[in-house]
């Protein structure tokens, strides 16, 4: 099926068309959690004697009565260069051909609620008689609210009620006890949400369990803080047997999170280059599983320990402790971490 059929009128034709396809990956974003958002518009090869002139990508915000904003465009008149109309922070790419398939794509790093809305891809064409024709396709990107935030707000609110009742209303001890019991149950529920929505948990090993993060972080500080909240610390590998166990976890994670570049572990050489130590136990690193050529301290900025899984083998590399120093968002690695928590 071709992109357009001839029209009998001399005016322009504007209509949705299945050969203009727009997609959003993922279809919903959660601020501070979703690592990337990619919007792609693909236009199929036009019918005979139909020429594709341009593709325009726009967004209609969900809040208020704001008008749709044009974000980016690509035209056959300017060498096929993608134009950033709205000075968006997204990474843009595209290609256009008057008589072939074309596309325009934009990718956001760490998207916020500002990137939600109704995205529209509009293809502008012209037939052999000079009649303008336009086809479009829409996709909705919604804001996602974390269940974890919902539970956390409930626990915080109930805790405030407990404190107020205890300090101001001593005669309501029974009510305080009820509130404390409710807060305790919600805390248990919150622990469940943390464990199941944010981490992959391992089986017990030598009196401890490992938590592999489902979300990415910008650096070592966020990873260490998350492990402390779970009651542990970044994993410290003491010998080959423990590394064999952890390698199996990394292999399983590689299948579930294919875009994950590196997993942070709990060692650094920030005090003295080449002298690696475990940050929680303050002990020197005696067992290693370095990848060939590592550690190499590229640009003298790689002072933290990361693990990668390539092919069938897990290994260690030295990485930057702060991923956010990478100026181009699309080039920032998808960085996870592994916590070690007493069982």
Overall mean pLDDT: 83
Fold-level CATH name of the largest domain: Mannose-Binding Protein A, Chain A
Provide the CATH architecture of the largest domain: Roll
CATH superfamily of the largest domain: Mannose-Binding Protein A, subunit A
Number of helices: 4
| Top-tier CATH class of the largest domain | Alpha Beta
The low-confidence parts are 1-12
Strand content: 25-35%
Quantity of strands, as a count: 19
SSE ordering:
EEEEEEEEEEEHHEEHEHEEEEE
Q: What structural class is derived from the secondary structure elements? A: alpha+beta
Cα end-to-end separation: 60 Å
Radius of gyration: 27 Å
Task: Please give the largest β-sheet.
Answer: 8 strands, mixed
**Whole-number tally of structural domains:** 3
Q: Which term fits the overall shape?
A: flat
What's the helical proportion of residues?
Answer: 10-25%
């Amino acid at each position: 099926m071709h992109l357009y059929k001839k029209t009998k009128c001399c005016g322009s034709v504007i209509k949705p068309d299945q050969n203009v396809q727009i997609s959003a990956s993922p279809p919903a974003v959660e601020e501070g959690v979703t690592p990337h958002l990619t919007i792609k518009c693909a236009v199929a090869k036009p019918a005979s004697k139909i020429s594709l002139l341009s593709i325009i990508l726009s967004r209609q915000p969900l809040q208020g009565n704001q008008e749709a904003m044009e974000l980016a465009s690509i035209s056959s008149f300017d060498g096929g260069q993608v134009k950033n109309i709205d000075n968006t922070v997204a990474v843009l790419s595209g290609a256009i051909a008057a008589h072939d398939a074309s596309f325009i794509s934009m990718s956001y790093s760490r998207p916020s609620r500002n990137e939600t809305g109704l995205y529209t891809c509009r293809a502008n064409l012209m037939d052999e008689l000079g009649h303008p024709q336009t086809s479009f396709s829409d996709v909705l990107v919604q804001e996602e609210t974390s269940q974890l935030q919902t539970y956390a707000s409930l626990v915080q609110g109930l805790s405030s009620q407990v404190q107020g009742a205890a300090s101001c209303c001593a005669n309501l001890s029974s009510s305080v006890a009820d509130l404390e019991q409710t807060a305790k149950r919600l805390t248990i529920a919150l622990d469940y949400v943390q464990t199941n929505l944010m981490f992959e948990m391992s089986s017990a090993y030598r009196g401890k369990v490992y938590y592999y993060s489902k979300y990415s972080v910008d650096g070592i500080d966020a990873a260490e803080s998350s492990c402390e909240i779970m009651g542990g610390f970044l994993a410290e590998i003491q010998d080959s047997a423990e590394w064999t166990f952890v390698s199996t976890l990394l292999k399983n994670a590689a299948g579930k999170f294919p875009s994950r570049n590196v997993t942070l572990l709990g060692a650094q050489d920030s005090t003295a280059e080449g002298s690696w130590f475990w940050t929680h136990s303050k002990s020197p690193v005696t067992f290693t599983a370095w990848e060939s050529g590592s550690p190499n301290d590229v640009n003298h900025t790689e002072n933290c320990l990361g693990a990668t899984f390539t092919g069938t083998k897990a290994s260690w590399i030295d990485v930057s402790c702060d991923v956010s120093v990478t100026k181009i968002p699309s080039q920032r690695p998808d960085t996870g971490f592994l916590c070690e928590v007493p069982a």
